[in-house]
Amino acid sequence: MKKTITVILAIMLGASVWVTGCSQQEASPTPSVTPPQTSTEAASTSVGEILDYKIIGIDAGSGSMLKTAEVLTHYGLDNWQLVEGSDAAMTAALTQAYAEKQPIIITGWSPHWMFKKMDLKYLEDPKNGFGGAEQIHTIVRKGLKQEHPAAYQFLDAFHWEPTDMEAVMVQILDGEQPADAASEWVKNNEEKVGKWVEGIQPVNKEKLTIAYVAWDSEIASTHVVEHVLEKRLGYEVELSQVQTGPMWAGVAIGDVDGMVAAWLPSTDVSYLKKFGGQIEDLGPNLDGTKIGLVVPAYMDITSIEDLKN
Fold first, then answer.
1. What pLDDT is recorded for position 31?
2. Within this chain, do residues 275 and 154 fall inside the same structural domain, yes or no?
C-alpha cells in the first residue's frame, strides 16, 4: 500500500506532453518556455533576455534548489529567477523545448533518463559552486537496527550503479509502472540482489515505512528497495511520497523507518546539519552523482559565467 503525503498539481501542457516516470504523483503546471528567436534577434540578445532570466527548477526546498540558489548568488546572477515546480514539470518543459529546439536552462542531475533520451550538457562551473561528484546515501531512523535487524542489514548492504538506476528509470519512462519496472530489474539482476540479502533471515509481515521524493531517480531506487523488502525479506512496506524537508524530518522523528534518497555531501548538506544527530547514515548506495545547470547541446553557451552576458 502506498501513502502519498504530498500531492503536486497536475501538469497540463497546451499539446499535452506527458512524462512517464512520475506516475506516483501529480505535478505542478509546466513552466512556460520562451519561443525561439530569429538568428538576427539572437545575435543581439543575451541568453538572459531570451529566457526572461528564468531557470526551470523542481520542488521548493529540495537540496538541488537550495544549492542552485546559492550558486546563482555566488556567480552574481541575482537577476535570474529560479522557477519552482516539480521533477515532472521540469522534464515536461525540457521535453517540449527540446522537441522544438527552443532554449531552456534547468536544474539537472545525474543519473537521470533525460540524458539518455536527449543530447544535453552541464554548464561548466568554474567556481565549483555545485561541488564535485556526489553520492546518494541511505538514511534510517535511530533504533531500526534493534527493532528490524533484517531490514537494517539489507539497507546497509544496498548499493548499485548509475546504469542500474537508469535502466529502471527508462523502463518507467517507456510506460512500465514503477513496481513492475523494479520487479523486472530485480529479476534480471539476481546475482547483485542476492548479495544484498545474503545471510538475512526473512520476517513474517513486519511493517516498514520508506519515504521518498518524487524524482525519477528516487522513484526507481525506492521501488527496487520496496520490492526486495517485500518479496525477499517478508516485510509489508508502505511508501510515503514527500518533499525533501519532510523526508528528512520524518526519519529524524521516527515517523518513517528510512529512505535511500539523501544526496551528499553537498546537495542535502543543510538537512544533514539539521537532523544529523537524530538519524543514522548508512553510507552511500550509489556513487558518481552530479547536479548542476543543464541545457540542450544545441545551445551555444558553455558556462554558468555565460549567464552574465
1. 53
2. yes
